[in-house]
Amino acid sequence: MALCSICPRIPLRFRPKPISPFLSKPQICLAYRVYSSLQSTTPSTRDELGTVSIGFLGMGIMGSPMAQNLIKAGCDVTVWNRTKSKCDPLVGLGAKYKSSPEEVTATCDLTFAMLADPESAIDVACGKNGAIFGISSGKGYVDVSTVDVASSILISKQIKDTGALFLEAPVSGSKKPAEDGQLIFLTAGDKPLYEKAAPFLDIMGKSKFYLGEVGNGAAMKLVVNMIMGSMMASFAEGILLSQKVGLDPNVLVEVVSQGAINAPMYSLKGPSMIKSVYPTAFPLKHQQKDMRLALGLAESVSQSTPIAAAANELYKVAKSYGLSDEDFSAVIEALKAAKSREA
């Protein structure tokens, strides 16, 4: 530890230098041991939960309902968002507000971050007035954003260099599960922080998995979302084909829902897709971002993913039609457009 030249007994602390969000592509090899918990952690009492000060960075479509559930459970929550007005409903429920990630981590024991993409996650954690400038030894940072493996490892290193603990915990689930506290957490990183955060994860989710080293949670989330995006593209093809051959697509949705290939999102989104209505639960732009990151992960380990690659192209087309902020089920519009061009 460096000492002051005027008074050698006084240690000097240096602010970490903000880092650039631009990363080189990694070569990745992941190994992990899995721990699964289905509400296995007994939630603490309301009073006990309130003794841990919780920070929450990012009040978007996912972060806001997650933070609301913590507040309703009796947690002491401090919030931040780039657009301050998005914090107002949380403050109305009893949350405190701070004007920067640095201020949040400086005043909170445990900070969660839910950001839209890797660039935002890195900037909020490591950029100007970022979380690393307020966090310190004995505190914890839980990044629940969906990012690539390299970004998660980078954020982890910067957080841990301060003496704090780090846990990545991307979620499987969209707006409604976030509102209902039914998310699935895919965690990796410091096991002591996983155990400390467990009661709060149980408030926001229905299950959690501990996957070992940092990067494994990010990788698992990308694989899951790659599968989901590919399934949705295939489902959209099926709806349009059923219509083309004179079948009732609503009956198709019912048939699928009763068979071995059933997935909840088919029954949930199918009727709206048939009506060309796409209420946003998971924005299409985020699905395409996750497809892109998953394809990058696959390339880094030389794994062929032709189905996902084809689906990704459809999401890119849908984005070009101005559907970025619609639900990812709006990918069906890209197929409709392709059909029109072929006609």
UniProtKB/TrEMBL annotation:
DNA repair found in the keyword field: no
SUPFAM superfamilies: 6-phosphogluconate dehydrogenase C-terminal domain-like, NAD(P)-binding Rossmann-fold domains
Molecular-function GO terms, alphabetical: glyoxylate reductase (NADPH) activity; NAD binding; NADP binding
Domain of life where this protein originates: Eukaryota
Role this protein plays: Catalyzes the NADPH-dependent reduction of glyoxylate to glycolate as well as succinic semialdehyde (SSA) to gamma-hydroxybutyrate in vitro. May function in redox homeostasis and play a role in oxidative stress tolerance by detoxifying glyoxylate and SSA generated in glycolate metabolism and GABA metabolism, respectively.
PANTHER family reported for this sequence: CYTOKINE-LIKE NUCLEAR FACTOR N-PAC (PTHR43580:SF2), OXIDOREDUCTASE GLYR1-RELATED (PTHR43580)
A single cellular component GO annotation: cytoplasm
Keywords tagged on the record: NAD, NADP, Oxidoreductase, Stress response
UniProt-recorded name of the protein: (thale cress) hypothetical protein
Protein's UniProt keywords contain Ribonucleoprotein: no
Domain 6-phosphogluconate dehydrogenase NADP-binding: 53-212
